[in-house]
Amino acid sequence: NEDPVGAHAMAVREALGAMPVLQCLAVAALPGQTAVIRYPRLVNVGPEMMDLAVQKEAGQNIPYDLNEVYLDWTLLADSMEGDQRQMKVLLVAAKHEVIDARVQILQAAELQCGILGVDSLALADAAEACGYLKEGETVALINIGLSSASIHFVKDGVSNFIRDVSWGARELIQAIAKDRRVDFEEAERQLQRSGEAPEPAKGQAPAEAAPAPPPMPRHDDPFGEAPPVVSGGSLLDPLDEELGGGGLSAPPRRPTPDAQSDVREVLHGPLGRMVAEVRRSFDYYEHQLYERPVDRIVLSGGVANLTLLRETLMDELGVDAVDVADPLRSSLMLGDDPAIAPLKQFPSAYMVAIGLAARGMADI
Q: How far is CA 120 from each of CA 3, 253, 316, rounded to the nearest angstrom?
């Protein structure tokens, strides 16, 4: 809290120090909540007029003064419909202060950013690198972070619609913390031990029982939805009112004989809120945009391996196929250095990073 820029810069430097490379192209990203992404369609616009036409569309679609934002665009599709040339454009804008804040952290870490993207867009790059996108199929890429989730619809291998929602894994962990009267870290461990934990990556033997498994990776962004500030404890600890007003002094409940069933029951409430948010996005995409139904979901994030999460999405959204993202199957050469051990342990948590790496490799 005293020096957030310095703290984040130190984290970046620690991450870089663990990497077995001396030179690299740094690819950073903004959280989806801080960027405006639109998909305008242009009709009969020649190549020489595209910049002007996109600027005009931006003035109608971006909810900020264009003098306050950085703007970029790319052509997604160009086709003839009758005698009209239809062009679909991906338009991205972010306010100056949002980008400046990100660049300030990188500069404090003595790192020069070669490319700056958006994490929700990186999901599509990762899905392409992993072979998840197919012609004739609509895929929903759902990435669940600690405090927010991105839902990216891709049709025929092309980005089609993105929505970010304020729901994340913290809701699941806080539900356990409130029910069991334990702190955040213990609730996270109980979620893992319950049988709803992330599964070992392919080729790894299941870990033997341990008193305290390592916490799931957290990749939420400092510029996303901030966790509540709790005096005298971790920023991520549940608030007193979330623990029934008794703080952390109440004795923990005794574990029930059927711990997995009990945890599943506790998680139904927060998962119901998550499904409601996701269903709104699906309804808008499939009905308001007049697009075809979603054929498959690719789920990523630190809790992507939760069985109950996948079952809930399948049952409530009517989607038969929910795949857990595995970036180890990507076309990127990841190697065997110990530095990527966390990726091998929790592969689905690193889809955004894989997407940014794929974006950088395309430029190189």
A: 28, 39, 23
Backbone angles phi, psi at 110, to 5 degrees: 60, 45
* 210-228 per-position pLDDT tens digit: 344 444 554 444 333 333 3
**Under 8 Å between Cβ of 359 and 159:** no
What percent of the chain is predicted at pLDDT more than 90? Answer: 51
pTM, full prediction: 0.79
- How distant is the alpha carbon of residue 355 from its chain centre? 11
Which of 89-93, 197-201, 280-284 is predicted least confidently? 197-201
Q: To the nearest 10°, report the CA torsion of 116, 235, 198, 279.
A: -70
Q: Is the dihedral of CA 26, 32, 38, 39 positive or negative?
A: positive
Provide the β-strand partners of residue 92.
Answer: 37, 72
pLDDT tens track for 35-81: 999 999 999 898 889 999 999 999 999 999 999 999 999 999 888 88
**Do 310 and 322 touch, CB atoms closer than 8 A?**
yes
Reference 275, options 308, 239, 237; nearest CA is: 308
**Strand 84-95 with 41-43, pairing:** antiparallel
Partner residues linked to 324 by β-bridges = 299
- CA–CA separation, 198 vs 346, rounded Å? 7
- CA dist list (Å): 230 to 167, 169, 217, 226: 20, 18, 21, 12
158-165 β-sheet, strand order: 158-165, 149-155, 138-144, 296-301, 321-324
- Name every residue whose Cβ is closer than 8 Å to that of residue 265 and which is 6 or more positions away in sequence: none
Residues forming beta bridges with residue 153, ordered by sequence position? 140, 161
Name beta bridge partners: 87.
42, 78
Q: Are 217 and 346 in contact (CB under 8 A)?
A: yes
DSSP 241: G
